[in-house]
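Hey all, quick one. A colleague (J.T.) asked me to put the pyridoxal-5'-phosphate job into the tracker so the inputs and the structure tokens live in one place instead of scattered across chat threads. No bug as far as I know, just bookkeeping. Sequence used:
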Amino acid sequence: MTESKSISLFEKAQTLMPGGVNSPVRAYRAVHRTPRFIKSANGSKITDADGNTYIDYVCTWGPALLGHAFPAVVKAVQKAAVKGLSYGAPTEGEVKLAHLVSSLMPPIQMLRLVSSGTEAVMSAIRVARGYTGRNKIIKFKGCYHGHSDSLLVKAGSAALTCASPDSAGVPKGCTQDTLVALYNDQESVKRLFEANKGEVAAIIVEPVAANMGVVLPQNGFLEFLRDITKREGSLLIFDEVITGFRLAPGGASERFGITPDLVTLGKIIGGGMPVGAYGGRREIMQQVSPLGSVYQAGTLSGNPVSVAAGLATLEYLASHKEIYSALEDKTNRLATAYRNAFGKQVCVNNIASLMSVFFTAKPVTNYETASSSDTERYAEYFNFMLDNGIYLAPSQFEAMFISAAHSDEDIEKTISTLQKFTQV
Ligand SMILES: *Cc1c(COP(=O)(O)O)cnc(C)c1O
């Protein structure tokens, strides 16, 4: 397997972009390699500049639930593009997408489209503050909610791998109202409410944490968050940027049967194009300008090409709900094979089409236990899999994404490759 083109592109890229990349986790620093520069992707496969093809479990970090270049989505984008790329005016497509999102996710009675998950979360927090007239936000250690200032505290994703959970360039004033609790730890939440009576605008949570690796909510944890926020007059925000349309057509709120006040969306909702959304109870969303006094805007929000990709994706999902059980079966098969191959050396967490292999003997239930993982062992595993045609996240603290395009053959090849790794 040659990597000369990726290496020369990376050399040039490093002179032009920090770390040679446009988002830090792409830099492969944690696994001591050169990132693959990608030329194309189709279905479950991704091909690099040197012509190597891999089975892809990054799936563009989540959006490619249907696989890459899904024909109905590509066709919708092509059809939309020739009619103009952006109008800065409302369109029928936006109405259709908003209607579909709201019908798949009943907690969302009204929503706004934006262009990224970061924007969705930043806006939802502003609405929660505007609606409650309170400033403080509770987030969980190891949960990632995008890179906006007030949420870059004890964040997950690349902020974990880079060992800089608190970013430089974020003034103290921006995070002084961000309180950090521990995932799956009810007491830590109660203590924050007691110490900040009447001041907490909202709890924001990834209902399944997927940015410190995949960490499932323990029984009763999400119900507890629903109850305590209701009791304290605070809002519950589900950050479903990863879980939305993945855990079920209606996301985590459907899967766990919990109704949050606000939901943030990204990734799958754009089908590979830049789309995010935030929405929730009508009277809360009516606070948003021009109806209300919470300002939020976007030149390219709801642009017709992105909306076409999102709409084609969600329409397919809504009319093929059977793919969810097939996705979960595939993921269970992979997870079982990993448990058998590695035995007690690893903890495998999985739900729906999300999975993580933690190189630790401890059950991983929160940030502390996730951090007990042996990241050098992960790097060895990553390198072996990459060199054998399996493309994984270059970090212990990211999810494996399984798509509808992954075939039985892909799963078998992945399993036989990891069995080889455990035997070397
Ligand atoms: C990816 C992600 C975000 C940020 O979305 P971007 O589109 O990268 O800005 C926010 N929250 C969660 C849970 C995410 O996984």
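Adding what we noticed when we looked at it: Residues 17 and 107 are 40 Å apart (CA to CA). The chain is about 40% helix and 15% strand.
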